Amino acid sequence: MTTQMRAVSQRRYGGPDVLEIVETDRPTPGPGQALVRVRAAGVNPADWKIRSGAVRKFGEPPITLGLDLCGVVEAVGEQATRFRPGDEVYGCAFPPHGSYAEYVVVSVAALAARPASIDDVHAAALPVAALTAWQALERVAAVRPGHRVLIHAAAGGIGHLAVQIATARGAYVIGTARESKHAFLRDLGADELIDYTTTDFAAAVRDVDVVLDPISGDYGPRSLDTLAPGGILIDVRGTGPDRAAVREQAEARGVRFVEFGFTPSGIDLESVTNLVERGSLRVAVDHVLPLEDVAKAHELSETNRMKGKIVLTL
């Protein structure tokens, strides 16, 4: 068995052109880890932010990007009893040894059995976006029947899953998206849609219990106007503009503001799997590209015009 593998690497921060396919050593799983042969890797906005240097918490290049993955367990380390070689799994990896590679070592705590009803590509599109939406709506906001939930960028990777999760929890769902994506979102369960290019959502929406915001910037202060007393604004963008002003405004208005980042969790992914298997959650994949076209995938991701996710196949 070969000890080498192909992976995407970058030797410096920069544009998509810094990404290159290299031959490198295949990793070995340690205690509590699994070696996964990657079949498909999801592309997230966080990937190009890390590539560009906007996010540097994973260290300096060379690094291999990639958070989402679906594949097959090849080997396990000591104390990794949840999975065995041959198991089909999906979950999360992290740079500098991310999922844009033929093999990746992952904590078994960040993996779950792949949903049987979907293929590798769709499973690889789920983990980061689905965990972000599910944990924010379930664990932070505790969305329940009767809640009014406003979801920004509703047709995006996080947004279109959040629409379905909130709907499954019995909420009335309002989404912001271009008019061309309204039919797609109605099919996913959205009750009300606002074309943000022609209508100011802050003037059109009131008495919302929860706002899920993957955009940040001026969307934060404007979203506060839509909240009912005691409501909550959850900013899931990650790295972005300073939120001190929106936090102060939220406190003055008697509403909550939370900056939220997902936590890798195989247990929470099992809850996502249950929604998928019940038919309550489906992930939209806008583009499927081979690993060799990783630069093109990043170019597409940076347009912020995707309907769902981009996935790389290996």
Features:
10 helices, 2 domains, seven-stranded mixed beta sheet, 15 strands, 28% strand, 28% helix, alpha/beta, 314 residues, Quinone Oxidoreductase, Chain A, domain 1, Rossmann fold
Percent of residues in β-strands: 25-35%
The best one-word shape is globular
How much helical structure, as a percent, in the residues? Answer: 25-40%
CATH homologous group name of the largest domain: Medium-chain alcohol dehydrogenases, catalytic domain
Taking the sheet with the most strands, its summary is: 7 strands, mixed
Radius of gyration: 19 Å
Describe this structure in words.
Helices cover 28% and strands 28% of the residues. It has 314 residues and is an alpha/beta fold. The protein has two domains: 4-126 and 283-313, Medium-chain alcohol dehydrogenases, catalytic domain (Quinone Oxidoreductase, Chain A, domain 1, Alpha-Beta Complex), CATH 3.90.180.10; 129-259, Rossmann fold (3-Layer(aba) Sandwich). Strand 9 (172-176), helix 5 (182-188) and strand 10 (192-194) form a beta-alpha-beta unit. The model has no long low-confidence stretch (mean pLDDT 95).
